Amino acid sequence: MITGNFDYFAPSNVEEAIKLLNEYGDDCKIISGGHSLVPVLKLRLASPAVLIDIGRIKGLKGISFEGGTIVIGTNTTHAEIARSAELKKHCPLLVETAGQIGDQQVRNRGTIGGSLTHADPAADWPAAVLALDADIIVKGKGSVRTIKATDFFVDIMTSAVKSNEIVTEIRITKPAQPQAAAYLKVPQAASGFAVVGVAAQLTLKDGRCEKVAIGITGLGPKAYRASTSENALIGNTLDAATISAAAEKADTEAVDTMEDIHASGEFRRNLTRVYTKRAIMAAMSRA
Amino acid sequence: MRISISINGVKHDADVEPRLLLVHFIRDLAGLTGTHIGCETSICGACTVLMDGKPVKCCAILAVQADGSEITTIEGLADEGRLHPIQEGFWECHGLQCGYCTPGMIMSAYGLLQENPDPTEDEIRHGLEGNLCRCTGYQHIVDAVRHASRQMAAKAVKAG
Ligand SMILES: Cc1cc2nc3c(=O)[nH]c(=O)nc-3n(C[C@H](O)[C@H](O)[C@H](O)COP(=O)(O)OP(=O)(O)OC[C@H]3O[C@@H](n4cnc5c(N)ncnc54)[C@H](O)[C@@H]3O)c2cc1C
Ligand code: FES
Ligand code: FES
User: Fold this and answer.
1) Whose CA is closest to B89, among B131, B142, B22?
2) Parent domain of A74
3) Is A7 on the interface with B (CB under 8 A)?
């Protein structure tokens, strides 16, 4: 399988990339790891006239800390996140999520920014960035925008990033209780993509749930925060009955559901409820 | 576009179309056909090579993306005709039948053992999840990787 023809540019900085994006408009596509885009091009589901490879731009890759904020460059690979000892300490939810994406070869190439922008409804990162209340930083011609994770996923394969913008980094406030987190998923047997995936990050105080964020991927056309479940937990003691009752509401926000050979919509709803319960229990047990 | 990719320590310069896949660069331009093409859809892992030391599926990478990188293929593993311990493991434990998946399996096993020199059976199965084999049922592949891990540990002790 061979892709259509295209021209290729590998700019060395973000400004140059944005200039190219504006010059070629809808005819061009950014490529980072290429592990979503190259398969799409090979199937000729898309045939952009120009590819802009941002993989060689220095400064878009790596994990750093600015006070209480974790900063992850868009080109940071899943493998780099899965291996990070610093993140294991300060935000293990990222490490746990990264380690469950695809296989080691995919993790060595695929990037967090590429995955988020691609907005595959079965991708893992959306659940984690929602549960961590991340900010996604996007640059355009003379502009910088901060998109909240809750506003980032628009629809199936559609993110809030405009075609002449580039994601530069993902910023996350260090969780108060980093270990009180879990990402659990039901993987598709062949690709490893999530049939359903649930990420939960908790803050417990004197046995009560002070704060909780639950991100859910796989069920609907876009990942979402399970706010109804969250509200049923906040302020309460997390006993089995409270958790079960809250998890029963985990699919409330999903109006439409995905439905394919892997699972029916109804089965996905059920998995969402069950895995939300398990994720909260796991996060609690790790606190 | 002119690119230069080092494969098994040998530099290959070529003028390529941007749409050329790395796997075709390796097989057709460099003539190294040990790297196989199985599914062409980035699932089966037959095309796994090391890119700057890390296993990757080169049917999902453009050759231009690999410009300036160092690739190791199955042909680059043996040291002056002596099989690499992972290759030896596949030989000793019957880790292959038709052999189609084997180069990719071995390159993935290489990546796995680099990260985790003493993997459990579970860790081996998990580590090789990106590689499919239609023949062996995987058990002999797991045995082969275990064999290799022991050999490599013994070698490391010997080398001090
Ligand atoms: C076999 C296989 C199994 C997989 N399994 C999983 C899995 O289990 N879970 C999972 O979540 N994912 C999975 N993936 C997808 C993988 O994680 C991809 O790497 C990821 O979705 C895309 O990242 P990328 O860097 O490769 O992006 P690319 O393919 O380079 O780009 C993807 C899209 O994002 C755009 N883009 C990329 N970077 C930017 C940027 N900085 N700014 C603006 N736009 C940008 C591109 O234009 C393109 O439209 C799998 C992929 C394969 C091939
Ligand atoms: S040929 Fe590359 S993964 Fe199957
Ligand atoms: S030995 Fe035949 S596919 Fe693995």
Assistant:
1) B142
2) 63-173
3) yes
Is the distance from the beta carbon of residue B135 to the nearest atom of ligand 3 less than 6 Å? yes
Q: How many domains does chain B have?
A: 2
CB B93 within 8 A of CB B140: yes
What is the domain range of residue B153? 85-159
| Residues on chain B touching A104 (C-beta within 8 angstroms) | 55, 108, 111-112, 115, 127, 129-130
**Mean pLDDT of the A150-156 span:** 98
Q: Note the pLDDT tens digit of each residue in A198-208.
A: 999 999 998 89
pTM strictly above 0.95: yes
Tens of pLDDT, residues A228-269: 999 999 999 999 999 999 999 999 999 999 999 999 999 999
Cα–chain center distance at A95 = 12
Number of domain units in chain A: 3
Per-position DSSP letters for A87-109, written without gaps between them: HHHH-HHHHHHHHTSS-HHHHHH
B68 and B92 share one domain = no
